[in-house]
Automatic annotation (TrEMBL):
Protein name according to UniProt: Cubilin
Pfam families recorded: CUB (PF00431)
Residues annotated as signal peptide: 1-26
Source organism of the structure: Mizuhopecten yessoensis (Japanese scallop)
Record's keyword terms, sorted: Disulfide bond, Membrane, Repeat, Signal, Transmembrane, Transmembrane helix
Positions of transmembrane segments: 145-170
Length: 268
């Protein structure tokens, strides 16, 4: 009896493997951002799965850059190596792809993620013992490298914009430094402006202005007309008078030290 059961199990396993290489009768599902559910008949109501079951599901993500993630809650006949009843998950479109795990027993904390956008699920049972089965919750998630790629693109754009702004700012600063503008020293009279002239490498050199001395005046003599008339009359200078007044002349004006009015003069 044991030999017969073993032979039947081997034949059943070979049939399942051969049938699983294609997805002619599998249920094709689409994973989205919203969680969806696969479960054996009556699992949520505590019913047992049927004998000699063989069911397959092909899950594909809606987003080509996403992967499939599943959470498994199961109550499947336990056995060494899950030889009798089992839930198998493959990383691809059929059972010929790499296995992501074979599950049996009772558990509710299993999470499996595909490497690409497709996942293939197989559930099989024999005729000896039936239990509740399984419930599988699946959805699509972003791949880690896709997330980092998005972050990298955002950082690259931000860095480019920042670099352009910095270059424009530096160009504006350089342009303003290269402009030549005159300045005047505080409290400085009779001098030319001082010009700020840029040297190579944007270093500034202060060129001192040419200081212009104040206008000079020529000392000239001027004899008061009244004094001259009185000298002609008396041939001498009256007391209290001055015969010579000093003046300072410039190209624009003559400043003369005047004498008192004539009524202040007396003959001696």
């Amino acid at each position: 009896m044991a030999i017969r059961d073993g032979t039947m199990a081997v034949l059943k396993y070979l049939f399942f493997v051969m049938a699983g290489l294609t997805c002619l009768e599998c249920k094709k599902l689409t994973a989205t951002d919203t969680s969806q559910t696969i479960e054996t008949h009556g699992y949520s109501f505590g019913l047992q799965y049927s004998r000699f079951m063989y069911e397959t599901w092909s899950i594909e993500t809606l987003d080509s850059s996403a992967v499939v993630e599943v959470e498994i809650d199961m109550d499947i006949e336990p056995s060494l190596g899950c030889w009798y009843d089992s839930l198998q998950i493959f990383d691809g479109s059929n059972s010929g792809e790499d296995s992501l795990g074979t599950f049996c027993g009772t558990s509710s904390d299993n999470t499996v993620t595909s490497s690409g956008r497709e996942m293939y699920v197989v559930f099989q049972s024999d005729g000896s013992l039936q239990m509740r089965g399984f419930k599988l919750i699946y959805k699509q998630v972003k791949q880690k490298y896709a997330i980092w790629m998005t972050v990298g693109i955002v950082l690259a754009v931000f860095t480019t914009i920042l670099s352009v702004c910095l270059i424009l700012f530096l160009c504006g600063v350089c342009k303003s430094k290269n402009e030549v503008s005159p300045i005047s020293l505080n409290n400085a009279q009779h001098q030319q402006p001082v010009w700020m002239i840029p040297r190579p490498h944007n270093h500034l050199q202060v060129v001192p202005g040419q200081f212009v001395p104040p206008p000079t005046y020529q000392d000239v003599t001027y004899q008061n007309q009244q004094a001259m008339e009185m000298q002609d009359m008396n041939r001498r200078i009256l007391q209290g008078t001055a015969d010579i007044a000093m003046a300072r002349a410039s190209p624009d004006n003559i400043m003369v030290d005047s004498l008192p009015p004539s009524q202040y003069y007396e003959k001696t």
